[in-house]
Specification:
Blueprint lengths: L11 E3 L6 E4 L3 H10 L10 H9 L3 E4 L6 H27 L8 E4 L3 E4 L2 E4 L5 E3 L4 E4 L3 H7 L7 H20 L1 H9 L4 H24 L9 H11 L2 H9 L12 H14 L7 H5 L1
Parallel strand pairs: 1-4, 4-8
Antiparallel strand pairs: 2-3, 5-6, 7-8
Helix pairs in contact: 3-5, 5-7, 5-8, 6-7, 7-10, 8-10
Length: about 280
């Protein structure tokens, strides 16, 4: 992606050089369990830290503060540019539709983090917390996305994930998230999961819409990188890789095919009115 020398957002909180506090020891199976619970964290992440502590008991350690390398600094600059792009594009889209966009914050961390939605480990993957309207990311996630789940990698895979999480912020501002949670009340687990899938697919659609309006800054392989990431984090792809079984009723984020489809639809149309994923899944 063409990003060097461009505007950087002031709404990034870089906590990577700070002590991470309590961090789960061992990773491995535990990390996979948490990842399966919340790949791309969705829009809450509020139970991640609690689950992690229950599974591991008291096996924790304190992460020491570590200085940022030159590569770390460069990645931070890249994230600031991507967030600035989201700010500019979504502000314009909201204004065109008679609304006002409120910029979220994006927090970079290592190991673990405390949020208005509770504590979370880096094993949870990136997530959005509506309680404080912040996106949380440990950039180490993207190496695992490539090595464990077969994603192509590349800088636009990171841009796609950021745009997906900003999509959850858009849903919060539009009231979509609150409406979805209300509709989940009294539903069976399978029916509630369908609504969760629709929310996640709409966030993928919004990521595609953002990409549509950012085409002047794309490199040749960027769309392939985004689609590769979307494919890698489909519920069916993860379940098949981790357990060899696929259980559709347990899906919470959508299949690889669905995630790629909705990203591509957003990218092709650039029209937020065409992202009614809730109607599509009924």
């Amino acid at each position: 992606m063409k990003w060097l020398g461009r505007r950087q957002s002031d709404n990034v909180e870089d906590r990577r050089g700070l002590s991470g506090g309590k961090v789960a020891v061992g990773g491995g199976v535990i990390g996979i369990i948490i990842l399966l619970l919340n790949v791309f964290g969705g829009e809450t992440g509020q139970t991640i830290g609690n689950v992690l502590e229950q599974v591991q008991g008291g096996q924790q350690q304190t992460e020491a503060a570590a200085p940022l390398s030159k590569e770390d600094e460069e990645m931070g600059d890249f994230v600031r540019v991507i967030l600035a792009d989201n700010e500019d594009i979504w502000s314009k889209i909201f204004e065109e539709n008679g609304m006002t966009y409120k910029n979220p914050k994006l927090v970079l961390f290592r190991g673990s983090v405390q949020t208005a939605c509770g504590g979370a480990s880096s094993a949870s993957g990136p997530f959005y917390c509506p309680g404080d309207q912040k996106v949380y990311m440990d950039l180490g996630f993207f190496e695992e996305l490539k090595t464990k789940f077969g994603a192509k990698g590349g800088d636009f895979a990171i841009a796609y994930v950021i745009a997906h999480e900003i999509g959850h912020h858009v849903q919060t501002l539009l009231g979509t998230s609150a409406k979805m949670h209300h509709e989940q009340e009294g539903k069976s687990e399978a029916e509630a999961n369908k609504l969760s899938v629709a929310l996640e697919l709409q966030a993928d659609f919004y990521a595609g819409v953002w990409t549509h309006y950012n085409q002047k800054n794309l490199d040749t392989d960027d769309i392939d990188e985004a689609l590769s990431a979307a494919n890698a984090v489909g519920d069916d792809a993860i379940q098949s890789k981790m357990s060899g079984q696929v259980v559709p009723d347990s899906f919470t984020h959508g299949t690889s095919e669905q995630r790629m489809y909705w990203f591509k639809k957003g990218f092709k149309t650039g029209d937020i009115k065409q992202g009614n994923t809730f109607e599509e899944i009924r």
